[in-house]
Amino acid sequence: MNSSSSRHGVYGTLPLALATVTSGARIFGPFLPGAEDLADLEDGALSQLVMLAPAGVLERRYALAQGLRVVEPSGQFTVMALKDKGGSRLRKELEAFGCPVIETSKAHHRICGVTRPASLVGISEAVAAGAPRRSDTLGLFTQPGIFSWDRPDPGTALLLDHLPAFSGKGADLGAGLGVLALAVLKSPKVTGLTLIDLDYRAVRAAQRNVPDGRAEILWADVRVAELKDLDFVVMNPPFHDGGAEDRSLGQTFIRKAAEALRKGGTCWLVANRHLPYEAVLAPLFAKVTLQAETGAFKVYEARK
Ligand SMILES: C[S@@+](CC[C@H](N)C(=O)[O-])C[C@H]1O[C@@H](n2cnc3c(N)ncnc32)[C@H](O)[C@@H]1O
Asked: Whose CA is nearest to atom 12 of ligand 1?
């Protein structure tokens, strides 16, 4: 089946033990490069939608509202989330949109089934609260759910305070809203900068925030990006609570930076000071210098 004509949809990476996905279903969600955006669908475009709801309140209510909007009346909307990542609030949130809910629980997830009622309440308000917008605080385009979407990140701010004026071609890995990229592109000697982020909302915001002909902005996974012969890399690698998975993602970012650089090229990065990145940097780079340190963060310059 041609997936764009399917009336079944899947949002996010569903836990396989909890949901079966119809073959040919349309794929939605900001973290799946190439997936569609629910916001682009007309009201009632789908007859069935299964969603792994995001954890953040505004982004979850936005996703739920978009989901209910695009499922036709009497269509099926199934939403799940880990109990401690918004799952325990799903039922109330769906009921507040005017939906009767059947709730079950499995594998630490709450699963809410809704037959979409003919009328809904509060949809446009939730869509407006989670929609892309310009932030006066940041002076940037942003959207709830993007990393540090409504306030400057202290780690990024520390890195910004120490970045040198670069020359040549570089990359910003996990570029987010484009805060580091804007600083890098202030140097007229920079000839090109590739911004990569896995979050479509960040990519869309960065496209507006970084209107510079030297910037190439990619919706992609850094883990599979092919970059080489770069003069410099900047990054604030992804982390959340510093769990094992996050650490290994940050370490992969460092390996990717090392692969992408020419000999003598430099990687500037900031990390939570408790993350064990020195041991990863040391064998991959000729020289690693701790350039700044606070109670919470460390800034490294790593020369290949
Ligand atoms: C700590 S934030 C830094 C954002 C931005 N550089 C800044 O300093 O404000 C890390 C970014 O990496 C992105 N990210 C996470 N995993 C990724 C992956 N596998 N590939 C590309 N980007 C990823 C996140 O969406 C997030 O925007």
From this structure: 174
